[in-house]
Write a structure and sequence with these properties.
46% of the residues lie in helices and 14% in strands. It is an alpha/beta fold and 207 residues long. It is elongated, with a radius of gyration of 18 Å.
Length: 207
């Protein structure tokens, strides 16, 4: 018989939050400049430095290193992004606020484990009242550990006082889900709130 699930640990972006970083620059630059800045094929582009932010690099470190590869004019675009990062929070993923509320009412502990910065997590918690159901959040930039490093999952288990066999981790990236499974945690790849409810019911949670 499968052990009863007592706790669920949630990723933020793509699971709880509809995070759209391009919105931080909307209205500041023509669309062509925005597309260039977020070009996924640029090896020294936004995606690369966003991961470094999540790993604990400061804004100053990011800007200095980015300028080496792109020059001061384009580096200024990154500065503007940092100045308006809060615009990237488009909202909660539909249905996830209600799910957090229902899990809390059912006595299930809900937690956060995110590759993000403290400023971003603080902004999300300030803006979206439903995130107050989270008992605590581990933030990669604060720990200088990022998913899928197994150490960050082990840290979550220790700090939150969780039993891996009774815990579910939810993330929209399968490599992060698989890393949690390797740590003995039940992993669910997130599609949408309805599918997640179905997946949780399949493992014995009544919602």
């Amino acid at each position: 018989m499968q052990p009863k699930i007592n706790d669920i640990v949630f990723d933020f972006c793509g699971v709880l939050l509809d995070w759209r970083p391009d919105l931080a620059l909307r209205g500041e630059y023509p669309q062509g400049v925005i597309d260039m800045f977020f070009d996924p094929d640029d090896p020294w582009g936004f995606d690369y430095y966003d991961q470094l932010c999540d790993a604990g690099w400061s804004e100053r470190e990011i800007l200095l290193d980015y300028e080496k590869h792109h020059g001061p004019a384009v580096a200024w675009v990154f500065r503007v992004y940092f100045d308006h990062f809060e615009r990237a929070f488009h909202g909660l993923i539909p249905g996830m606020g209600d799910l957090l509320r229902d899990l809390d009412a059912a006595g299930v502990g809900v937690w956060g484990l995110t590759n993000f910065t403290k400023a971003s997590v603080d902004e999300a918690l300030r803006r979206f009242s439903e995130l107050a159901f989270l008992h605590d959040v581990i933030i990669s930039a604060e720990e200088r550990l990022i998913k899928p490093d197994p150490r960050i999952y082990q840290l979550a288990l220790r700090r939150f006082g969780l039993d891996a066999e009774r815990t579910v981790f939810v993330d929209d990236r399968i490599r992060n889900v698989e890393a949690a499974r390797h740590c003995g945690i039940h992993g669910i790849e997130f599609v949408d709130a309805r599918q997640l409810r179905h997946d949780l019911q399949k493992i014995g949670l009544s919602l």
